[in-house]
Design brief:
The complex is a heterodimer of chains A (79) and B (148).
Chain A (H helix, E strand, L loop, with lengths): L3 E6 L1 H7 L3 E5 L4 H11 L9 E4 L2 E2 L12 E4 L6
Parallel strand pairs in A: 1-5
Antiparallel strand pairs in A: 1-2, 3-4, 3-5
Chain B lengths: L10 E3 L4 H9 L9 E8 L4 E2 L2 E10 L1 H18 L2 E14 L3 E9 L2 H18 L2 E7 L4 E3 L4
Parallel strand pairs in B: 1-5
Antiparallel strand pairs in B: 2-6, 3-4, 4-5, 4-7, 5-6, 7-8
Classes of the chains: A alpha+beta (79), B alpha+beta (148).
């Protein structure tokens, strides 16, 4: 069974990829995931966004294991 | 004994009504150790953008993460200031110009703690909660809100 991960997208990132969720084969790490997404959706290259793994923002390259909840978060603008 | 606090839902669909704010103030009349309240209300501004004038903001959030984060912030503020109570409400969905989208309410025995806690809460909410505002323009386009 291929290792597939579910990704949630929000705000302008969801708009850029045309969906608020997507499923891709797990590239293994957060940095590899970011590169893969930018290759798949070139519009993301010029946009700023962070990754959250299991609802926690990650600052450095992190392993992504199966079942993790991944989210693409553009800069926050609440309030 | 310290009361155990659990994550609360801070999100409200649509604008926060002035009646809700008034009711919330009234609910504190029975808490007679309170000597001061501090309230912050965020209101949708008709901002002039190069692309058009803002007529509404459509808010979305990564709700589960935002509630976890709001709880963490809430606990930190309670630990830092001697507060009696604290309430946070943030709108989701489309909020029109002039309507209220954020209501932060802190109460304490003395004014300073309430005022400082309220200020810090608002700053942290804007910086740390995964919430996004899509500014709807009178030109039928939209731009994504940027927090300053």
């Amino acid at each position: 069974m291929p290792d597939v991960i579910q990704i949630k997208a929000f705000g302008m990132i969801a708009e850029a990829i045309g969906s608020d969720s997507l499923e891709i084969e797990n590239p293994g790490t957060s940095l590899a995931l970011k590169k893969q997404l930018e290759a798949q959706f070139p519009g993301l290259k010029s946009m700023k966004f962070s990754l959250a793994v299991d609802k926690k923002m990650i600052q450095e390259d992190t392993d992504i294991s199966q079942g993790k909840e991944i989210a693409l978060l553009p800069p926050f603008s609440g309030g | 004994m310290e009361k155990e606090r659990k994550p609360k839902n801070i999100f409200v669909q649509g604008p926060i009504s002035p009646e809700k704010i008034a009711q919330s103030i009234a609910n504190h009349a029975i808490k007679t150790d309170i000597g001061g309240h501090s309230i912050f209300l965020g209101q949708i501004r008709a901002d002039e953008k190069p692309e058009g004038k803002v007529i509404a903001i459509d808010y979305t959030a990564y709700e589960e993460m935002a509630l976890e984060k709001a709880f963490e912030i809430r606990e930190a503020i309670f630990a830092k200031y001697p507060l009696t109570c604290m309430h946070i409400y943030h709108s989701l969905g489309e909020i029109k110009v002039g309507e209220i989208c954020l209501f932060v309410f802190t109460s304490s025995k003395h004014r300073k703690a309430a005022m400082e806690a309220c200020d810090e809460l608002v700053e942290r909410i804007k910086a740390e909660l995964p919430v996004w505002g899509r500014e709807i323009l009178d030109t039928e386009g939209h731009v994504w809100k940027v927090n300053t």
